[in-house]
Amino acid sequence: MAHKQVRKQGWLKTFSVILALWVSGCDRADNRANPAANGKPSVVATSTIIADLTNRVAGDEIQLKGILKPGADPHVYEPVPADSQALEKAKLILYNGYNLEPGLIKLMNASGVQVRKVAVGEVAKPLQLEKGKGEVVPDPHVWGDVDNVILMVNAIRDALIELAPEDRDKFSQNAEKLTAELKQLDTWVTEEIKTIPADKRKLVTTHDAFQYYARGYGIAIAGTLIGISTEEQPSAQTVQKLVEAVKKAGVAAIFAETTINPALINTVAQESGVKLAPRQLYSDSIGAPGSDGDSYIKMIEANTRTIVEALGGKYTPFQTATTTKK
């Protein structure tokens, strides 16, 4: 009898150890799945541009989830169930606003998520553009002017400080460093565009995403195939009108974009007898990892290089003060 009791106690000990290990393993798995359990609040950013800026400001102090992937078009993106789950778990949602990402904005509003939502792009004063049939809407592509992005960085910093005040110093220092780089970038773009002959500073693109860039750096928009949203489907008549406009404007080159099928803008180039720039512009998304536009700063540098080289200017690579010292 005593022998049976000893065996029973031994079995209970073994079971207790196994149970403890199993619970511990579950806890670790839950911690990995639940960022809050690791003490890092979950933050969702809709666009790749906002995700990149947020990553620079936040560093490792948050668990950042970017919904859109590099190369995805926010205008026509259709949310998937995983996006709804990410929004529900978030402690802060950062989005562009001005209806850049209509599908995700609709999802945010419909889901009833009770967390702070910050329209980062709406801190910049919008340009008002005609959408058609007399309708005027705010242009969402505010990041084209680097000055606007400095305002966006400040908004991201303030939202993160409100979320995690204990990390105020880290957020502030990172934002200050990023802002210094952006100011240098802003000056560099201005000087680069000046190298293009004055009569060649004309931009023709697939969709109307470069108004802020053009107005900020002294280059004219000579024409676009479609308006501010890529949802539009250009007709044959629209294509022909742009061909005539391109011929009349005497542009040196026209530009395709990384997030839009280049077939129609290529047709415009062929029928107008104007070259298509050999490099595409990044419009609504940063580039894939490892590309020349895989961050906001690199995206603006790559676009400026593409424009300057195609329009007859002299390109000089962008260097921050830190890069120069190295």
Question: What's a concise summary of this model?
Answer:
With 326 residues, the protein is of the alpha/beta class.
Structural summary, described in words:
- With 326 residues, the chain is of the alpha/beta class.
- The protein is 48% helix and 12% strand.
- The protein has helices at residues 2-33, 48-58, 81-89, 102-111, 146-163, 168-194, 211-217, 236-249, 263-272, 296-310, 321-325; strands at residues 42-45, 63-66, 92-95, 116-119, 128-132, 135-138, 202-207, 220-226.
- Helix 5 runs antiparallel to helix 6, helix 6 (168-194) runs parallel beside helix 10 and helix 8 packs across helix 9.
- It is globular, with a radius of gyration of 25 Å.
Topology of this protein?
Layout: H1 2-33, E1 42-45, H2 48-58, E2 63-66, H3 81-89, E3 92-95, H4 102-111, E4 116-119, E5 128-132, E6 135-138, H5 146-163, H6 168-194, E7 202-207, H7 211-217, E8 220-226, H8 236-249, H9 263-272, H10 296-310, H11 321-325
Parallel strand pairs: 1-2, 1-3, 3-4, 7-8
Antiparallel strand pairs: 5-6
